[in-house]
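Q: Convert this sequence to structure tokens.
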Amino acid sequence: MNFSGTWEGRFDWDQPDVPPTRFRLRLRQNIFGRVVGEAVDLDEQLDFPRAEIRGIAEGNVFTFRKIYGRVIFRVDGRVLTLPEYVRARYDDEVGDGPETREIDYKGVFTTHDNALAGRWNSRADWVFLEQSEEWMPLMENSGLWIAHRISTDQLDLSV
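A:
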């Protein structure tokens, strides 16, 4: 199975109060099963950054990591960076913490549904708050995802 092309779908959260998010993946797979690309979340109300995709395809299974260039939070219909979130929620400043946010995905392609579907998980992490001199946990999140291929165009992405 070659996963190269453009895929669109949505990811749902295990938390019932968080609405699903639509996304687009642009992928290119080499002959060894290595997959690179980009992901864009398609929520019109929120300005999500693009994320880098790095993964591996083995048969009909696709395992990948979505890497955002900065840590972001979805709060009350807005997207906040880590420093903005800490200022708004804790009235504090970030002293130390992760610079990127990595989310792991694993999916299986089924010909019956003509779709990739599986689970995603963002690992827990820690942020040091300068003024209070305390560590704040970044929660682990998870959920389900599904995507359908909308194009098999060869993409100009280096592998």
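Helices lie at 82-90.
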